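Supplementary Methods. Inverse-folding protocol.

Structures were first reduced to a discrete structure-token string of length 202. This string, shown here, constituted the complete conditioning input.
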């Protein structure tokens, strides 16, 4: 069975939209694109390279895919080489074809298609961005691990990783480091149901 792993740059208030640059994703009039750029250091950069270098296939929402498709095939370097070489599964009800090598469109019952992928043999499935798609997977309890780069910034608006329809569940922290800029990099693994108690008794 394959794991589904979320990789996200996220603000303190849960926004994951447009971390890389001003023009990355202006959907909904978002004007704060590039909010992660000033918080990088050598440590945080290495954690991203380490994540990129893992064996995996990509699992992407349509919007993120359409941002990446005209960009990565024309770039070079370790990130471009990896993204261009792996298989890319895309959740979409509107796209009918793609020229990006290795792309497979999931345009049937997407959740059922993802469940079948998860149950199949192969490398883990990594998600970057893809907020709406990720939220749909959280609703079905399909996320096995989250790698979060949490930045010390509040954005107030923008696409978020979580919404109220997420299936309740417990996650355990398995790794965390702090960059010199205040960025915290954490890994969480799914750990069953929410643990309920009484704080007064505890």
């Amino acid at each position: 069975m394959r794991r589904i792993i979320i990789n996200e740059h996220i603000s303190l208030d849960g926004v994951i939209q447009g971390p890389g640059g001003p023009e990355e994703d202006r959907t909904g009039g978002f004007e704060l694109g590039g909010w992660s750029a000033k918080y990088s250091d050598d440590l945080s950069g290495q954690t991203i390279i380490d994540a990129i270098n893992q064996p995996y296939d990509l699992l992407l929402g349509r919007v993120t895919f359409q941002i990446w498709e005209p960009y990565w095939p024309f770039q070079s370097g370790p990130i471009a080489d990896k993204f261009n070489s792996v298989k890319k599964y895309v959740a979409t009800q509107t796209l009918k074809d793609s020229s990006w090598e290795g792309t497979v469109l999931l345009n049937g019952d997407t959740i059922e298609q993802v469940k079948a992928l998860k149950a199949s043999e192969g490398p883990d499935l990594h998600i970057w961005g893809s907020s709406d798609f990720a939220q749909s997977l959280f609703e079905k309890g399909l996320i096995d691990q989250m790698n979060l780069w949490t930045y010390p910034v509040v954005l107030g608006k923008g696409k978020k990783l979580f919404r109220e329809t997420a299936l309740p569940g417990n996650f355990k922290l398995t790794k965390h480091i702090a960059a010199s800029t205040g960025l915290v990099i954490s890994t969480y693994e799914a750990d069953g149901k929410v643990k309920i108690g009484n704080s007064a008794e505890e």
